[in-house]
Amino acid sequence: MIRNLSELSDREYDLVIVGGGIFGVCAAWDATLRGLSVALVERGDFCQATSANHLKVVHGGIRYLQHLDVYRIYESNKERNAVLRIAPHLVQPLPIIVPTYGHGMQGKEILSLGLMIYDMMVFNRNKGLNDPDRRIPRGHIISRQECLHLFPDLEKKNLTGAGVFYDAQMYNPPRLALSYLRSAIESGAQAANYLEAIDFLRKGDRVVGVKVRDRFTCNEFEIRGKVVLNSSGPWAEGLLESKMGITVSPEQTYSRDACFVIPRRLTAEYALAVQGRTSDPDAVISRKHRHLFIAPWRDYTLIGVWHVVFKGSPDEFTVTNEELQDFIDEVNQGYPSLDLKLEDVSMWNAGIVLFGKNKPGADDLSYGKRSLLIDHAKKHNVQGLITLIGVRATTARGKALKAVDVTFKKLGRNVPKSKTDVTPIYGGQIECFEEFLSDAIEKRPSTLDADVMRPLLHNYGSRHHDVLKYIKEDHILAEKIGTSKVIKAEIIHAVREEMAQKLVDVVFRRTDLGTGGYPGDDALKKCADLMAAEMGWNDNRIQQEVDEVRSAFPFLNKSK
Q1: Do residues 312 and 260 share a domain?
Q2: pLDDT digit string, tens, across residues 184-225
Q3: 83 and 37 assigned to the same domain
Q4: pTM
Q5: Residue 178 phi, psi dihedral angles, 5° rounding
Q6: Quick one: pLDDT at residue 528?
Q7: Bridge partner residues of 274 (DSSP)
Q8: Cα–Cα separations (whole angstroms), residue 506 to 401, 486, 492, 493, 497
Q9: Strand ranges (E), 358-435
């Protein structure tokens, strides 16, 4: 992954993609794998916005059963199965406990029926998954005693047991996106971060490319393409309106979806669903209140998700202390024994996503249900332009496939079958992850601590040797950064082979260093010094980069 801007302007591409979030990189991978020439540009870093900042769940669709939304159940199950198959290093099953109280709609009888119906609908949920650790078990009911053994602090009054179902969880969402992108680039795609699309190129009623600006040098140039895919998420509508005069109709609503991180495990291997304050107005079959989820993730705990209708610029949203405290209060109400406090939170994650239509001030919100794929030739009489605004990362591969199908039709070519559901992405050539890990630990360089191997293999999978090769050149690069399990070789690899341009790129998206909380001053300085030696930064630039990382932790005591 080399940031070579001169190559981008040297030719006309079949497809130019604007936006390097999960939907954009999946489209780049699908299109390249099917033989199209592709260029992708991203105004910031790849997967730096909503695609990185969510609850990290790959949904299997069980929640759509209460809406009787059969399409989304089948779609979610198919996409969960695909990503478990093609990215075995980055996605794994996540068991979730749903406590039941009394009988009727809140009891285990109805929940048991729902689990049975869901399992029948997703009978093919383990298609092609040979690794037993990657297979999704059937849902089942556990007794009151079993439930309390797992979560002894649960409210005991009227507790009758719990339902257990399985979704999946991403180890590191930005690395998943980078794996899709790396796969596309190794198959011939061109891509660049910090390259902003500032206008569409037009020839009559046809879009024939984009004009871009390098956000480091302010240089501007053109990238020509037969088809342009606008996949810039919450920025997509603004780009259309300001540069093309196109207004998407009906007007779309967006939500700021957020979760927060606790820097320790609150649960063991199971996530726990607790009831929040609000109800789902769209549910045909309802268990009274929406669930909030307390999920183990690496050495941390993720808690979410909460939604706020958002109408401002996607560049300007934030989460205030007051909002965070209100959500903590809601979590504590659903699970009082947690007794969480604001100072327990190491960081929050939030992004802007499509949402449902709601009346102003509504407490019980209607969520968005469909991603948006617009063929502007049909909708606005503009040829050569497609817009894709996705809702959930789970469905990114499948929605990207549909956008690429439209691209082929616009190019006047036969539409070949997509193979992204069966083709392992970068690092995904692994049959059985735990066996692969054991073998890698045994064969690791003698200077490398064994405890770094699991995160290393999760992040780089079968391509972890791309990182380890640097240790052969300099054994010092086997050292850890601060108290983390990130090694110095990962920093060098991020700069030389993964287009990292800034310290935030490495801390939040190329490595695990800052994904769970503030890594500490010493770790940041060591990481910045390694990058400075590669990038030629002076002391002022180093301090600027460190300050930018610090600003991402506005509510924290930096001495943690």
Answers
A1: yes
A2: 999 999 999 999 999 999 999 999 999 999 999 999 999 999
A3: no
A4: 0.95
A5: -65, -35
A6: 98
A7: 292
A8: 29, 11, 10, 10, 12
A9: 372-375, 385-389
